[in-house]
Specification:
Elements lengths: L3 E10 L4 E7 L5 E8 H5 L8 E4 L5 E2 L2 H17 L7
Antiparallel strand pairs: 1-2, 1-4, 2-3, 3-5
Length: 87
C-alpha cells in the first residue's frame, strides 16, 4: 500500500522535554501523533519537516471539532513550505 503525505499541523512541548508532533492529511480527517525527545531534535537525529509520508494504517481519525483546524493548518503549511523543509 502506498504511503499518505501528511502535513505538520500541531507541535506542543511538555515538561518531560518531549515534543508532540501531529501530522494530518490535507483534508484534516486523519492524523498521526509522535512524541520525540527535544534533545533528538536539537542534536539533529530527528528532523521536523513540513510533511512526512505515513502508512495509512498508522493514521487515526481526528475528533470532529479539530478536523477544520487541521485542514486549514495543513493547507497553510503546504502553501508556505516544501514537504522537506525543516520547520
Amino acid at each position: 500500500m502506498s504511503e499518505t503525505r501528511c502535513w505538520l499541523v500541531e507541535r506542543t512541548y511538555n515538561d518531560r522535554d518531549l515534543v508532540t508532533l501531529v501530522y494530518a492529511t490535507p483534508d484534516g480527517e486523519r492524523a498521526v501523533t509522535k512524541e520525540v525527545p527535544m534533545t533528538a531534535i536539537a542534536n539533529g537525529s530527528v528532523s521536523v519537516t513540513a510533511a512526512k509520508e505515513h502508512d495509512p494504517d498508522d493514521l487515526e481519525p481526528v475528533e470532529e471539532g479539530t478536523v477544520e483546524r487541521y485542514r486549514e493548518e495543513a493547507a497553510r503549511v503546504a502553501t508556505d513550505h516544501d514537504p522537506d523543509d525543516e520547520i
